[in-house]
Each structure stands twice: as C-alpha cells, then as structure tokens.
Inverse folding.
C-alpha cells in the first residue's frame, strides 16, 4: 500500500458517533499536513470526489443498523464511482456499553462485509476496516446512557481510532473486528430480515406526543427526509431509517417509540399471517414441506408485517387527535417513562468544527 497524499471521509451519523469517529481520523491526517475532505452524506448536494493524481485514501464511516451498514450509506456506496484500484477503508460505529469497568462491544453482522464487497466489485482495494464501539444510541430499546458513561466510552475509544488512522495513513493494512466473524455470519438471516422488513416496521413506531409544538426541527434535521406534517402532527414515512436523530433532537422530548402500538401491530400481523397461510393451504392443497415454502412464508410474513404497520400507523396518526388514544400511547411507550434519557449529548456537547457541507 502506498502512503496517501489526501484523505476523503464520507460519513452518515444519526446521533454523532460516526461524526466523532470521522473527526478523530481527520485530526490525525491534518496533523500530518495532508489534504483532508470530510463530508456528511445526507442532504449532500455536491460530492467532492477524490482526484486520482492526489493519491487519495477514501474512508466511509457509518453506524451499524440491524447488523448491516446504515441503508443510506449502502446506497451511497452503491452509487459511488468506480475505483480503478484506488484505496479505501471502512469504520462502522456500533452499540458500545460499559458494565461496571468492562467496555462491551456491539455486533457488526454484515456492516463491514457488504460495503467491502460492493467496493471490491467497483474496483477498490480495502486497506483497512474497524468497528468502533461508541455509546449505543438505540433509545427505543434502552434509555440513553449516563453522561459519565458516555464520556468514559468516548475517552476509551479516541486513542484506538486515532491509532487506526495513524496506521492506515502510514500505509499499513489493518483489519479489525474479524474475531466476531463466525457470529457475524450466523446473523445473516437477521440482517436480511431487518433490511427487507424490520426497518420499515420500525419506521412506523415513532409518534409525537402532545408536547409537540410543531417547531419543525425534526423535519429539517432528518437525514432521509422521512418526516412530514400531516394535519398538524409529524408523520413518519417508511423511508425512516431509525437513525434516532429526530428523537434526540426534539427540544420538547415529544417523540416516543410507541411500544404498545408496535406490540399491537405484531399481534395483528401474526393473526393475519396464520389466517392467510391456512387459507392458502386449504385452497391450493399445497404441502407446507415443499422446498420453496419456507422462503414464501417468510416473505409473506414480512409483507404482512409492513402492510399492517402502515395501516395501523395511519389510523393511530389520526387517532392521536383524541385524548383517549394519546393517553393509551403515552402509558404504553417505554420512552415516555420519566427519566428515559435521550441521547443528545454528542450532538450538543462534542460538536467540533469541520468542513461538513
Ligand atoms: C435501529 C438501530 C439498529 C442498530 N443496530 C445495531 C447493530 O446491529 N449492532 C450494533 O452493534 N449496534 C447497533 N445499533 C447501535 C448503533 O449502531 C450505535 O449506537 C452507533 O454508534 C450509532 O452511531 P451514530 O451516532 O453515528 O448514528 C443500532 C442502532 C439503531 C438505532
Ligand atoms: S422537533 Fe419535536 S416539537 Fe418539533 S415538530 Fe418535531 S416532534 Fe414536534
Ligand atoms: S425520521 Fe428520525 S429516526 Fe427516521 S431517519 Fe429521520 S431523523 Fe432518523
């Protein structure tokens, strides 16, 4: 591997972890006096592409979503120009936690494998990758970590990321995170299910409670332009990638994950699935043991789950105009529990200057 003259970093970040990782890498390159370009890919109007004569190294930094790279980054990478042997590296931020004094890692699944394969097919040479276990931001599933824990995880990871940057910028090849490859491969079906259905279902679990004052910040900030105002209330579209930015950015803490509604959707979809499968067998006389049956029934259940989520969400959106519905949603949403922390720390506290567009 040759020593690069310039560094281009493209990143997407819901709550700041991937941005912080990119900043650390850029800081190292700046110290070496290299030309650096860092671009946040959401809402990007013009991509500054590396010029071949600059001997560029190009990095892609993104969060892990459902054991894969964030879909927006996958789309960006798929649309990236051909590489002609140029060098790239990858860094995926994951759900880091801290249990007493132990820093625990997240799980990559396909988050490094798929982007590396796509870029290989496009003619790039991957000279390094690394998972980065920054504080988990999935506050639909757990309350945001305490500030002290967040600080501690960040302090733990900064030197590791900078060392990785030092090494790849010095021309070394560094491949980290391979220790979990067997588990990552076992997770392929879960990653596929998340990509095909899970993310669309999750998009329909966000709801704005009565604290919403229609300020529009969530609409402005969403990287996928997935929130729209319908009849005076924010409405989440299927294109939402559950990056968690809106929920953490909302000044009123008005955005909830409606766990009660989500449970209702799952129960309804399961009932519809059971009924449909029974009907299909009765009418066609098909044997459920046929080789293609498993694939067909999985796809049917995915489709039903997404369709039910879409319909129930639409009904709930209008239902939220009624006090009784608002009360039920509030009391069945874990995120409405007092003290369920949001994860706004990185967005507000660690914003350093960079040349984002
Ligand atoms: C919808 C969703 C799915 C996630 N899936 C995973 C996962 O599969 N593995 C993992 O380690 N972390 C997972 N996480 C955690 C994030 O990848 C992690 O907190 C990341 O550092 C966030 O980066 P960001 O702040 O740049 O968005 C998930 C988070 C969300 C919101
Ligand atoms: S940011 Fe919060 S208060 Fe503002 S429109 Fe969105 S949900 Fe409502
Ligand atoms: S709607 Fe919210 S969670 Fe979904 S992609 Fe937009 S900012 Fe992220």
């Amino acid at each position: 591997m040759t020593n690069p003259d310039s560094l281009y970093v493209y990143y997407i970040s819901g709550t700041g972890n991937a941005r912080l990782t990119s900043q650390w890498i850029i800081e190292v390159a700046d110290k070496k006096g290299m030309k650096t370009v860092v671009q946040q890919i959401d809402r990007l109007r013009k991509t500054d592409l590396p010029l071949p004569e600059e001997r560029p190294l190009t990095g892609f930094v993104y969060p892990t979503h459902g054991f894969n790279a964030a879909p927006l980054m996958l789309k960006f990478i798929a649309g990236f120009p051909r590489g002609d042997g140029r060098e790239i590296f990858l860094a995926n931020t994951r759900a880091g936690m801290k249990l007493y004094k132990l820093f625990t890692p997240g799980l990559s699944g396909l988050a490094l494998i798929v982007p590396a394969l796509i870029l290989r097919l496009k003619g790039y040479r991957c000279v390094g990758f690394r998972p980065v276990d920054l504080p988990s931001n999935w506050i639909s599933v757990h309350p945001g970590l305490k500030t002290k824990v967040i600080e501690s995880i960040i302090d733990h990871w900064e030197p590791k990321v900078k060392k990785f940057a030092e090494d790849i910028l010095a021309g070394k090849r560094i491949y980290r995170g391979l220790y979990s490859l067997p588990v990552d491969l076992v997770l392929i079906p879960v990653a596929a299910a998340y990509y095909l259905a899970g993310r669309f279902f999750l998009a329909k679990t966000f709801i704005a409670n009565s604290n919403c004052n229609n300020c529009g910040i969530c609409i402005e900030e969403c990287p996928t332009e997935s929130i729209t105002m319908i009849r005076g209330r924010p409405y989440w579209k299927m294109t939402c990638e559950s990056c968690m930015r809106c929920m953490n950015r909302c000044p009123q803490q008005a955005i909830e994950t409606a766990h009660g509604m989500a449970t209702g959707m799952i129960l309804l979809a399961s009932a519809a699935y059971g009924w449909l499968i029974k009907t299909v067998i009765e009418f066609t006389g098909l044997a459920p043991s046929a080789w293609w049956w498993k694939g067909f029934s999985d796809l049917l259940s995915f489709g039903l789950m997404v369709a039910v989520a879409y319909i129930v969400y639409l009904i709930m959106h209008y239902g939220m105009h009624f006090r009784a519905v608002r009360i039920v949603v509030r009391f069945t949403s874990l995120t409405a529990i007092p003290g369920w922390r949001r994860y706004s720390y990185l967005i507000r506290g660690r914003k350093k200057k960079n040349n984002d567009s």
Observations:
- Residues 293-319 form the longest helix (27 residues).
